[in-house]
Amino acid sequence: MRNSVDGIRGGAWARTLRAAPLLLALGGPALAADTVQGRPTVIDGDTLQVGGTLIGLYGVAAPAAAQICQDAEGANIRCGERARRALARHIGTGEIVCESRGVDRSHRPVALCRLGREDLAAWMVRQGHAVADKHVAEAYNADETRAWAARRGLWAGVFEDPTTRSREAGRSPAHRTASAQ
């Protein structure tokens, strides 16, 4: 019969321990440290702060906090602030769990964040407060199509496409409307 010390000295366990630094350097499997949990502060419609850590919602983009859009009647609205408030109200005083998905184009940490079992990015897209970032993931495309068809949130009017913020710095902004996706 082998004891636990023998198991650690040799075999697969020892090889795993020797390979751990290499796995970490190469961006290996997610570790427990890649999960953040707590009550968030909502910074904008796709950015949360949990315990001092800024986290972007993976796979989606929402208007910047100060962004102005037009509603269905052509009136200017503070769509970025609306998105921020909607997310803050939805989370309320709840705790969230965020699982790292790496970093975005601007090197901001991004994560799949859940309130209970609900994916917060999916909720924002379904409500029309954020759009799917098709350059990152396809997971939210169907939710976006349904929000567009129902003319929810941003899709009720005209807005600057938030997925182009970092890709098109210095160029004229792309606009999206309820009539064209």
Automatic annotation (TrEMBL):
<dbReference type="InterPro" id="IPR016071">
    <property type="entry name" value="Staphylococal_nuclease_OB-fold"/>
</dbReference>
<protein>
    <recommendedName>
        <fullName>TNase-like domain-containing protein</fullName>
    </recommendedName>
</protein>
<dbReference type="Pfam" id="PF00565">
    <property type="entry name" value="SNase"/>
</dbReference>
<keyword id="KW-0732">Signal</keyword>
<feature type="signal peptide">
    <location>
        <begin position="1"/>
        <end position="32"/>
    </location>
</feature>
<feature type="domain" description="TNase-like">
    <location>
        <begin position="30"/>
        <end position="157"/>
    </location>
</feature>
<dbReference type="InterPro" id="IPR035437">
    <property type="entry name" value="SNase_OB-fold_sf"/>
</dbReference>
